Amino acid sequence: MPRSRGSLTLFAFALVAVPTVLVAQTSSTSALGGVIRDGSGKPVAGALVRINSATMIGGEKTTVSAENGAYRFSALPPGSFRISVSAKGLVTQTQNALLELGRTATVNWKLPSANAGATVEVVASTARVDDAAVGQTQNFDTTALATLPVDRTITAIMDLTPGVNGNRAWGGYSGENAYMMDGVNISDPSGGTVWIYPNVDWFSEVQVAGLGANAEFGGYMGGFVNGLVKRGGNTFEGNVSAYYADSKWQSRINVSHPDLQEADKDILPTKNWDVAAGVGGPIIKDKLWFFVSAERSEQQTSPTGAELPQRDQKVMALAKLTWAPTTNTTLEFLAEHDYVGRDRRYIDKYTMPEATQKESAPNHSYSLTWTQTMDSDKVLTVKAFGYSGRYDMPGYGGNALSLDTIDLWQYDPKKPAREFYNNSTYEDFNYRARATVQATFDWFKTGLITSGDSHAFRFGIEREQASDEELERFPGNLNLNATIYQYDDGTLELDGDYLIQGGGWNVRQRVDRLAAFAQDTWRVNDRLTISPGLRFEQFKARFYGGDTLWNKSTYAPRLGVAYALTADQTTMLKAHWGKYYAGYSTYFIDRAIQSAIPMKRYYSWGNYPVIGNVLDPSTWPDHTPGTADNYEYRRVNDLTLVDPNARQPYTIETTVSIDHKFGTLWSATASYVSRDFKDSLVRTDQGVDPKGTYNTFVNPLNGQNFNIWKPGTYYDPILDFSVENHAYVTKNEDSAKRKYEAATVTLDRLLSNSWSMNLSYTHASLKGNIQRADSYDKVYYNPNLQANSYGNLPGVNDHEFKARGLYELPWNMRLSATYTYLSGTHWTPTYRTDSYNSTRYAVNLEPLGSQTYPCRSLLDLRVTQMFNFTKKARMEVFVEVLNALNRQGVTTYITRANTNTNDNSSVYKDYKYPSELDAGRRLQLGARYNF
């Protein structure tokens, strides 16, 4: 393991020195461009354009307009800019412009004739126009991040965007997003979720996007979120903040269910707090800036019916230096450390505290960025980045044996039923690392095809290596299972049933990725912009020391068109078509090597010994494998080979939108998106099963009969055991379907005259039979899972309304709010059989997504009182009322409906039990000192 970490570090920083520059996963900059004309409308060549910004190190930058009057600044830091344009014999004009992360601000100029020295100050804010972006892209600046009543995580910020909920973006699965910091991927190469946990106070801006993205963007089929880390400035600025919440300030659970005991509705005693500080400023003015930040937090949550809360702790620290050795050169160095610790992870109503896990997850990362401006029309950016970290989740009992009672058993009638005892059922040990070197080259060219056109080219290439090490096993390498029996007189008996040895996995995998793209933003004329692009990616993956098992090359064309329906560009028609490939996940091949997937061996007691006391392991039956009364009777092999012809999953996306701006403050957008997910990877069973049979069961919801397939076993004379006849393969399946469609209307007002507002409504549908493309959707595992498998997929709300706003009250007070209405997501009742040969079988009782959860209506408020001490020093004290309406919508039911659904039964009476729901109304106090 240490050897692999060292090689990754050397690999990353060695590539920085090679002359062949290697791409930006996504942008960490913005751009500014436009056309300069005289009073008669003729292009002005050679006009001098000056820009200044507090976010731009190195002082003023300049360029001159081309023959057709076009000018452009590429690779600028987002922020507020002051622009000045001057030309001989024409009026000098000055204007302020807001440049946003990942967007191009278009500012056109008309300079009338005037006496020398005349200057016009343009007071109105610039119109913000992005030439090709379509739909629901959202940018959140420092003000929004500091004032909105929203969880302090990038995933919570992502959920503010129309069409994104529960980290699922526009029909994609939560593991199909790309999470980035300063434009570099910080995702887990295994499951695709967040790996680095940043403090949102690190960011000057966060962008949530994905729809209509150009060829620079790849590695996702959902959306992406990108946070731009602050870099300091020419003045010292900083803040200290603190948040505190107590469970005494939270409403009691008000959801009803026959199995939801009154005691389950109580909120366990918890205290949540968060303290953070950050400061930035000059070491040498206009030459060397710094930004540093640190945070410590603790959060406790109370799952419904749990005996104790789960406790999460985070420690995060970051330092960034920005150096401008010349006016055309910028170097940035970043170092980051984050630690996540969780006590009693996965505790719930059915799991005793000693059967949970204790997570420990330290991580550190580094990056180095070099930006070089060559002439006024060429910019080269080279970046090296790497992270390395662990997350380990051992059980609290060391190697002590765990007990799974299989069916719920109420040991003490005064306490809730428990299923897991003594120790965690499994334990995990994980290591991840990424090393990335990337480069982009921006080139602005005019008059390439016609005399009046301009082209903003961006080319890039990237080289990345990622490592994934995962070990999962039973504590003590054994898992003891027991069965519940209920007699006619109502007494219960818990009998030893079987134990499992082996299983789990031991994955040690490495992936190499090479990507390249070419993108043009072609301004044909004042109204028409065309954005063609092409992205190439190659993925190679292998187990440590093994041959390459995944070697795929992909080509993703993109084409965007933007047309101004009005001469002043206040109304824009935009359309985009593109192909988006999934990022590589180690799930694609993680079960393809036998040494990584230990065979599971099942042992059984012939006499079903009675467990005297479930809480006392000394009363449990002898669990020594291979004894006369504890014989091995079955082996199950989860080895899953990879089809050599399997293809990288992707989605075909079409987006259309109309944008209209009302003056300088208001804008409205109507958009439509269609996403068709293709080449999903599935795990299928190719084995012939002549001994399999169908058994008839009764649907408890309607009393009708239905069949469940029970696979047979065969005797293996070499192993001398009965073995299930499986032959699992990871492959593409044409019948695997997923299609997303949505229409969205948004209305936005920028902050002016003390208030701002954003409203959106989305109507969406997600239909198909598969939720995810990484082969871990179980629909093709066996015939039972394919019954009633097509319909409305979960994770998408048919109707969604979102609103957020800010209003500055008198007496230095401010009110900010976010509101979300979501119609219920879809779910499906399922049936699970009793245990046959230590296996249970499940089937959908109704077509997929036939049921819906209750709708959700969430209003969060923040009231802030500000105290101004000096021009820069200010204290903000605020109170947040979260879920002010106290709508405790159920977000997850137990969907299993077994034959015995009698509420008076102690077994299986938890159908539609609300296992997860929105937390009730609660208060949070906070303070922030800005200086």
Automatic annotation (TrEMBL):
Keywords in UniProt for this one? Cell outer membrane, Membrane, Signal, Transmembrane, Transmembrane beta strand, Transport
Q: Which GO terms describe its cellular component?
A: cell outer membrane
Signal peptide residues are 1-24
Q: Which GO terms describe its molecular function?
A: siderophore uptake transmembrane transporter activity
Instruction: Identify its membrane topology class.
Output: Multi-pass membrane protein
Lineage top rank: taxon:
Bacteria
**Is Metal-binding one of the keywords?**
no
Tell me the GO BP annotations in alphabetical order.
siderophore transmembrane transport
Domain named TonB-dependent transporter Oar-like beta-barrel is located at 229-312, 321-540, 551-813
UniProt KW Repressor keyword: no
Kindly give the Gene3D superfamilies that the UniProt entry links to this protein: Carboxypeptidase-like, regulatory domain, TonB-dependent receptor, beta-barrel domain
Read off the SUPFAM superfamilies from this record: Carboxypeptidase regulatory domain-like, Porins
Chief location category: membrane
> What does the UniProt entry say about where the protein is found?
Cell outer membrane
Q: Which PANTHER family match?
A: OAR PROTEIN (PTHR30069:SF46), TONB-DEPENDENT OUTER MEMBRANE RECEPTOR (PTHR30069)
- The name of this protein is Membrane protein
> What's the source species for this entry?
Mesoterricola silvestris
